Each structure stands twice: as structure tokens, then as C-alpha cells.
Amino acid sequence: MTVSTTTRPAGAPSLGVVKSAPRRRSVMQGALAVLLIIAGALTAGYVAQRMGSTHDFLGVAREVGKGGKISAEDLMIIRVNDAIGLKPIPSSRAGSVIGKHAVMALVPGTLLTMDQVTEIPIPAPGHQLIGLGLEEDQMPSSRLDVGVNVLLVVVPPKNQVILPDKEGATAADLVPPRTFNATVIDLKPGTKQGLMLINVEVTTADAPTVAALASDDRIVIALAGN
Predict the structure, then answer these.
(1) How confident is the model over 107-142, as pLDDT tens digits?
(2) Which uninterrupted H or E stretch holds 132?
């Protein structure tokens, strides 16, 4: 009797074993990659939406001094993103700002907030505004700015002749000059070279005297250090 046998070549893989583990790993890696792509797309969309969420707010178009009345020409529209901690005024509320007064000096190009405007006119009650036209030698050459407190120093008339006493001293040397406290509200160059036009706030009691002295060119501004 003849016995037939089949011999499997050495090294040939067994046909009865199914290796499924690598395939499962490949499916899981593919699913993870898809989830990462979706998450990245959602994040990018959220960031783009936040960056594109801009609104129109009121900004300062030109300088307004402290106490100045705000007009439509002083305002402009600035489109910016929402920012935590900032409370700018929406452009739709421009009507509620026009006609009010600046609490502080308003700088062009900045956003406007309700803390910077008031319905109370400046000067404050019990105070008045006095306009001064001063030459360069009647005020500090630097650091004079809107909002600073200054001393208005009264000087003798320019045409007054003061004779010294026997020791060479004059009355002006012995008596301290009269001064008035004031606050600079706004300032701008005059039409004449070296002339500065300055509005100062003084008390109502001092206003007539300061105005009379200013018209006689007898006011000099002194700026004290902190």
C-alpha cells in the first residue's frame, strides 16, 4: 500500500495562524489622527472667530484739554477686538458723549471711556478760568503740561523804577511776591513766536485780580517739584 505525504517547505508560514493585532493598532492610530485633526480644526475656528469678533468703539480724534467740551469733531471710530478689563464706549453711544466735558486731557488715538467724561463743567464750582498769554521767559521751559498745579507769581510792572535804599536793597527784595494757586487746563502755541496761550483754573475770589495782573503782563508761572 502506498502512503502519500505532503511536506511543507521549511520556513513557510503556517496557514492556520491569523495575526490580527497589527491591524487593530493601525485602526486605533487612524482614529486618533482623525480626532486630532478635528480638534485642531475646531481650535483654529474658535481662534479665528475670536480674532474676527471686532466692534466699533469711540476714540479720540484730536486733543481735548481737561475741562474741554467734547464735540463730534473730537471723536472717531476705532474697531478693535473685545478685551478683558477695558470698557470703551460703543460708537452707537456717541450722542451721550458729545457736549460733555473731559475729566482729564484726552490724547488722540486712544479709546474713550465713561470715566473720562463728565456732565459737570470745568472750572469746578467756586473756580473760574483765566487765559494767559506768556512769553518763554515767563514760564518753565519744560514739564508744563495739562493738569499740573502751578503758582502764579506776581512781578512788578516792567516800567516801574525801584530805587534801592542805602544798603542797596529794594522793597521787592524785602517783601515776598504775591502768589496764586492755579491748575493748567490747556495750553497751545500762540500766533506769535515764543508765545504760549494757557488757560488756568483759579478760585473765584482770585480770578479778578489774576485777570487784571495778566492784562498788565505781570504774571509768571512757577512749577514746583513733587
Answers:
(1) 899 999 988 888 877 777 889 989 999 988 898 877
(2) strand 127-134
